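Quick log. Single chain, no ligands specified.
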Amino acid sequence: MSRSSPTIPHIDIFAISPWSPTIATFSPRLAIRSTNYEDDKKKATEAHIRYVHSFQSDPLHILAYSDGSLCRDSDTGQQNAGAGWIGYHGLHDIFQGSKPLGPHMEIYDAEATAINAALKATINYATEHNTTHIHIFADNQAAVQTTFDVVPGSSQHTNLHTRSLIISFLKSSNQHHIKIAWTP
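-> predicted structure:
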């Protein structure tokens, strides 16, 4: 008889061994960045736009935006989470998706799921089209910070999968780069 609940995620405090790769292992090809503009979203938005314009026309770069959402049904009062993502190569949108996550997820979990789905889609596209630089943008700093440095807690399983995708993509070629960053 199982003592665990299907609504409570399994947490493994030993999920990552001490000898596992770190961000420094892949530096500078892997960058996980939160904001430097804590109080000024206008400056952060302007910096993001400049950054995207710096590589937008380069065919080696692909970018994706991910977002999680949490809303309450006005009739039932039940909370529901969802995840969405969209990817661009140059000025063309190349994929988009969304996924309902149900009432047992919080916003952090939805954001982590969206980052994972966006990364999976960009890696698939990059592999098929010889694109080497992946940029993922999300608006939740906690979700961005735990995509590779996975901590015990909710969405640990999702973040471990994201970490595995990152490691596999970066190990497959020294030309591969991934940046996951916060954006307003």
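The chain has a mean pLDDT of 89.
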